[in-house]
From TrEMBL:
Name of the protein in question: Peptidase
Keywords from the UniProt entry: Repeat
SUPFAM superfamilies per UniProt: Double Clp-N motif (SSF81923)
InterPro entries hit by this protein: Clp_N_dom_sf, Clp_R_N
């Protein structure tokens, strides 16, 4: 499938690996894909990110992602569901961090050493890459560009999709910013 990726999409994927390495993460996540996309300039995805104010509010996006990591990667829906049965995620995070230090639930295990130099992709990151093909094919495109990766990040429920939505970047708004029109909803590219 990687042979269908444009130069920009390949740069986003390799940029995600670079972000994972720089942050000391043992795996490449959806967050790393988003950060790599926000690094890019001169593409449809970077235009959409700029038009939606993501690049101007990058610090806010990164802070929201860090906050989600502190909650152990729970989505907003997960947190609300737990609150519905009386479980306060904020209280749990505070207790765990009180006992084990800030970021204890983040899952960042920086002590691991990588001898092979290879960082695997999480299931979520793999799903985004796979869904970018579905997005491209659904739009009638033969190649996968970074715009398809950005749309795929917004198309499936995840912490990254939550953070993007909180910053005004849903599937529909990203699509509108890139192409000027919407295709009538977010559901058509959510398979996977």
């Amino acid at each position: 499938m990687f042979e269908r990726f444009t130069k920009g999409a390949r740069a986003a994927v390799t940029g995600a690996v670079t972000h994972a390495e720089r942050l000391g993460a043992d795996r490449v996540t959806e967050e790393h894909l988003l950060l790599a996309l926000l690094d890019q300039e001169g593409s449809r995805a970077s235009f959409a990110a700029g038009a939606l104010g993501l690049t101007d509010r990058r610090a806010s996006v990164e802070a929201a992602l860090a906050d989600a990591r502190r909650r152990g990667g729970l989505t907003r829906a997960d947190t609300e569901a737990l609150a519905g049965i009386g479980i306060d995620v904020g209280e749990i995070v505070a207790r765990v961090e009180g006992a084990h230090g800030e970021g204890a639930m983040a899952g960042d295990r920086k002590s691991r050493r990588w001898w092979s130099g290879h960082r695997p992709f999480t299931a979520g990151a793999k799903s985004v890459v796979e869904n970018s093909l579905r997005v491209a094919l659904g739009r009638g495109d033969r190649f996968i560009g970074e715009e398809h990766l950005l749309l795929a990040l917004t198309a499936r429920p995840s912490v990254v999709a939550d953070v993007l939505a909180e910053h005004g970047a849903t599937y529909a708004t990203v699509e509108r910013a890139m192409y000027g029109t919407g295709t009538g909803g977010e559901g058509h590219a959510q398979a996977g």
